[in-house]
């Protein structure tokens, strides 16, 4: 269907549109016009991706600027989904318009999937493809071509303008990759982060580095390698080294100029002020630099030989480093850049071997660049009980804003969207930006197609909770078991159960085994369990799907932060009920988490408990959202913990709106009765026609809505004008009364919350 | 060498090195634990220690960046130092390098000392600041915990209070009591919040003051003004010439401005003017101490005011400042001054 938002003609590839999709598009357009960042929460399964794509493509084609779209998603399967949606959209557009537009979209993945080279693409292993590709496409190969030598060039090098680029977050956020991939994107690109509820963690991971003894060993081996290579080169081609040296004396001017012209996106590993300076003299010569690296690696090795956990800030680390090895801050900052330059000069091909060394160099640069927002944690043992030391140096980033700052600085419109982003104001706070628009959409439904419930007590009226004190209480475990058993009895097809952690899941399953609960469940459903091993899990998932399809029914036990909870859909009969056992809090004893909490409190005024609860609830909401993937789908959502009652307000709007007051404090038997009732209603035939006008709009209905909206707006304008004319005293009085009403509402809400 | 071997061989004073072909004499107290795994790195660090003048005052390449003319010169120096170290490590030209260094050290003793003092000062102030920050963080953490506890306690107390009153009161006013209790709770929390804000602001202000103080303390007290060896042997190039501080001039309260100086005119005692003459002779005017010269000087000053200004040149400058309003006023004033000057000139 084709309709207009303001003056923009939008082609939507389906004959019907959901009201929330329309609202979403309107808000998107507003943001793009205003040129700012926005946070949008849209219920899962309401066609977020297609509305986003169809609006932005329409926007690109209609306005003369042709702003490029960069669409970032989390997993490969989501990227593929987006690509197929885009393909369908473009097909529809060409049908409607009668001609094919000059339009190019690119989905980036590994070389293994993309390579078109006749012989390279036949290789099976990803690393081999990478290595061969590099030997064919490295920068100096291109230079040779320019010099007229006869070498092949990759087709991708001659790629013209792309309208849409689709890739994973890391290509934009991880500075190592972003430096290569996303550097030359122009300023007016529209950047979309889809499924962005975890974006702060992605940011943090992209700047955190873990160094183990093994990687240090590898690094020192590659340093020795480098030394040898330099020796060789000195004897054969000393001129090249001399050239590099001369360039370094002059400084990194070129890059600075390029950045001045704002051609490149900034890189947190390569801060601006670094570009203005020349490389310090003591690492200018290649052999000095290698000696420098060796010294640094030896120092790290020495630090690894500790027997107790140490956490320290970058400045104190640097001070100690200087005392022992005379490595100053300055050359350390240039480490990563210097290594890249050296590798380029030596024309090294097998970069894989130098991975660890690169990691160490990146670490060196980061530790010398940022005083705040990072922490070094040295853990000699893997776990509390381990006796064999396996030291790990965690260099953790605490501030999500550092990695994403260049993105916000560079691009005028960044859109953060997902099914679960509540509370919305948390994200601008944590990522350090201001949003011009924050919006959460509710779900319009013709019938109540999902049933969220909070179960706080077992059938024996004893409270159930996964809080640490009582989580292994036999009574609590039995109540959880009974809850699952009852739901297995009444729900058709698949049930998904989420536990807060693998550890807890294992202990609870073994206790259920002892109580004979598993045997009883066995009568109704097949039981499948997710494990940390991804192959085993995917096998379990496949079996689960088969069992759901052939009518046997199955229950999948998995973990709220595991692979299943993110990105795997349980639509229709694959998931008729989801049970969240316990609030999925993070493991609070981890030092990294503690440090991050403290950082958030001191810098962003986010209290520990607020953050923990926010984090737990966004994972819980993700789990719940797995089961409902569209408007014709239905499912039961059970939150089984006493503590969910208070955290209700932190659920996304579309879930908390559907949560009735009477269903927030249920015992198992009441929940089962409600669910039975719900399932019976859902079993009634439901025609697509029933939805029309309520949860789906045809073009005519859409136009009606727009007209009504316009009328409303005009009426409001008139009223405002009339109000202005009235005297101000009366106006003030009404406002006061309204405030009073709000007060009462708030009080009532607080009462409920208590 | 293992510890017991060291004990066995060297316990009775210095002894020759047990390695065949090495004729050095070793002492027990010079043995120490190895810090690094790689022996070559260990050796390198030892040499660095000597070069950077940590042990036995032998060499002293501890120049600092601010002693050099340019960054480039400093970089060259760093590279030179690196070269020296690698020479020493790899045993190239050891004798010559060492003698060079010794000569340099002897010539530049003062600046070496000064730099060393600065270094240690910096290290000390860094340590101080670090411990200060740690203490602050600890305090903040404690405060946050306290705050959380307080809130919790108050909430519990409030709820208890409401429950007590509900139990005591009649069933009719139950809802009003509940509402009231809620209101009290809300009020308390908002009061607490504003209180917190105030505290925070205060803390932030305090912190900034402290930071300033710390920064001031962190700055080196003395700058090594003895930089640059007097009879520089040309060993290190690009050093700044030592500048003798300029002798202080006597204090000038007007900052170079002469109070009685006039640029364009000379003030005379008397100007012929028919209506001013009367005033000069009028006793009633003179009695109060009125001096006609005051009037002359003021009028002439006003008349010549703005003569040195070139409006055509200044207008663009002012436009960039964007003060359209003041511009028009100023131009008018200047124009008036010019006309006044011409009229006075006529009078003269």
Automatic annotation (TrEMBL), chain A:
Coiled coil: 209-261
Statement: the UniProt record of this protein carries the keyword Coiled coil: yes
Keyword line: 4Fe-4S, ATP-binding, Coiled coil, DNA damage, DNA repair, DNA-binding, Helicase, Hydrolase, Iron, Iron-sulfur, Isomerase, Metal-binding, Nucleotide-binding, Nucleus
E.C. number: 5.6.2.3
Key word Metal-binding present: yes
GO CC annotation: nucleotide-excision repair factor 3 complex; transcription factor TFIIH core complex; transcription factor TFIIH holo complex
Reactions performed catalytically: ATP + H2O = ADP + phosphate + H(+)
Subcellular location: Nucleus
Cofactor: [4Fe-4S] cluster
GO annotation terms (biological process): nucleotide-excision repair; positive regulation of mitotic recombination; transcription initiation at RNA polymerase II promoter
GO function term, MF aspect, one: 4 iron, 4 sulfur cluster binding
Name of the protein in its database record: DNA 5'-3' helicase
Species of provenance: Rasamsonia emersonii (strain ATCC 16479 / CBS 393.64 / IMI 116815)
Automatic annotation (TrEMBL), chain B:
Family matches, as Gene3D superfamilies: Zinc/RING finger domain, C3HC4 (zinc finger)
GO biological-process terms attached to the record: nucleotide-excision repair; regulation of transcription by RNA polymerase II; transcriptional start site selection at RNA polymerase II promoter
Principal subcellular localization: nucleus
CC per GO annotation: transcription factor TFIIK complex
Region annotated Disordered, chain positions: 167-233
Keywords, comma-separated and alphabetical: Coiled coil, Nucleus
Subcellular location: Nucleus
Protein name as it appears in the record: RNA polymerase II transcription factor B subunit 3
